[in-house]
Amino acid sequence: MSNLSVIAGKSSEELAKKLSKKINANLVKSEVRIFADGESKTTLNGKISKKKSIVVQSIYPPVDTNLIQALSLISKAKETSSEVIAVIPYMGYARQDREFLPGEIVTMKVLGKLFKGAGASKIIAVDIHSMIGFKHFTIKTKNVSAIPELVQYIKKLSLKNPLVVSPDQGGKERAREFAKELGSEYIALEKIRDRKTGKVQIKTKNIDVVNRDLILVDDMISTGGSIVKATQFLKKQKCKKVYVACTHALLMNDAEKRIKKAGVIKIISTNTIPGKTSIVDISNTIAKAI
Ligand code: R5P
Fold it and tell me: What is the distance between the alpha carbons of residues 290 and 14, in angstroms, rounded to a whole number?
């Protein structure tokens, strides 16, 4: 038995497998049965290390189902391993990190208590929406960036004089880092979101992107609203090709179709969320963080 076990949650099976190889850990799979009422029954399939276990489980939809499975695996691992690390590649609920409207519950505070209570001593996430989310945790936290891996992929496209664009001011720092790694310029648009309806609008008026290939960079795509609005605006400004690079592509409902219809040539995302666009493997970056 190795001193290190990687426990693969159902939502991150492939990523956990890749990670276990990179860090020479024994891989333990889990089985899940969903009962008719929606409850998850999670079973660990194999023996785990007495020393250290790493549970890998992204919290994408069905979010609460994947969350309870992550907590269950951590809790079970803690019965055997003296140290349990939770790798949550896509940290669901991270956008609920502050009280935007009076009375709103800061769900990240709740998650902080749940992960600690389940037995995790440390959480590792990839490009958490904002570091404010982790301020609500009392256990150790680490956020790793997928930007270097995404940029490696973009470099292969050999774009001429590309410009990195953040769809909003909140993503300005991300765009700056991305552009630095790529060796290009960057800009950040002004986006406003109606806190009640969730609808977004681009407030930026005129920018010079004529004939330039653009890379829209974001941490995540959910409904696709931000990317669609940004692309429609950029196309009106007469840019050339628009690519999208993001860490977590949730692509809810027909988001991919609407993004393509708006004029995006290709969506490039990482395997924190498995799917058609997840062409960038992030296991190396996570392995380095462990
Ligand atoms: C917002 O601040 C985030 O960085 C993303 O831009 C946003 O969550 C994406 O959501 P949607 O695809 O629904 O616009």
Answer: 18
For 278, the 3-state DSSP assignment is: strand
**Global pTM value:** 0.94
pLDDT tens digits for 209-239? 999 999 999 999 999 999 999 999 999 999 9
* Structural domains of the chain, ranges and CATH numbers in brackets: 4-145+282-289 (3.40.50.2020), 147-271 (3.40.50.2020)
- Closest by CA to 222, choosing from 202, 189, 193, is 193
Structure tokens at 113: 């208590």
Residue 151 CB–ligand 1 contact under 6 Å: no
Residue 223 beta carbon below 6 angstroms from any ligand 1 atom: yes
Handedness of CA 131, 283, 245, 152 (dihedral sign): positive
Look at strands 278-280 and 264-270 and give their pairing: parallel
